[in-house]
Amino acid sequence: MVREFNDTNNWSIILGASSGLGLATAQKLAAHGMNLCLVYRNRRRDLEAIEYNFQKIIETHNVELVHYNLDAIKAENRKLIVNELKNKLAGKGKVKSLIHSIAKGNLKPMTSSNESELKNDDFRLTIESMAISLYDWTKEIFSHKIFAEDTRIISYTSEGNTKVWTNYAAVSAAKVALESISRSIALEFANYGIKSNCIQAGITDTASLNRIPGSDLLKELAIKRNPSGRLTTAEDVANATYLLIKDEAKWITGTIIPVNGGEHLR
Length: 266
Prior knowledge:
By secondary structure, the protein is an alpha/beta fold. It has helices at 20-31, 47-61, 75-89, 120-143, 169-188, 207-210, 215-225, 234-245, and strands spanning 10-15, 35-40, 65-69, 94-100, 147-158, 194-201, 256-259. It has a seven-stranded parallel sheet, with helices on both faces. Helix 1 packs across helix 8 (234-245) and helix 4 packs parallel to helix 5.
């Protein structure tokens, strides 16, 4: 395997790195020599398994890895993490990629006789967490001047950006906002060598998906729609993320790229 990021002192910051798309991406990039700063927010009962996965990445791929179990949405945590990473880089390393895989949103119905209903605050929390945080992190890293000359910012969206699913209204709104912010970053940061793209993942069997009411039906329908007759995997998305970070992808920016095996064709 070619480890094109080996000995470059390049780093990837991955938000939402403890499982699913974020963890798979961390594993993929580490396999190619990328150092990792992993941010996640999990309960104490999950930490042993998470730390085991991170230690395995270090031992298997011989990369540097720092991780933070902190809420990535809070400004004070963002400032702490970026400042500590800047001190660690000490002017010798750079952030090559920022990966946004935050799945923190409200899944409530708009109307219900026996459940809590979606409210204004639910929309605001979800959009701030799953969309505006992309801009917040981009600006924080940019202000510390630790982005590489050729940086890739990649965020994960879904087909829920255009399709209507019950209980998904707040997340759907956040995905639309995320894509808009990603395109604007691609335009307004272009002169600084920053490229920004969204990957629209197909239906992927992750903990985030399984929190959506009716997720089993979504998976069943996705398999029927998909020309290959299977769900998208986290590894499929991680592979595409890796490709977008390679030098050969430096002219791709401002796009929404389906990574779903053709699921969108039907």
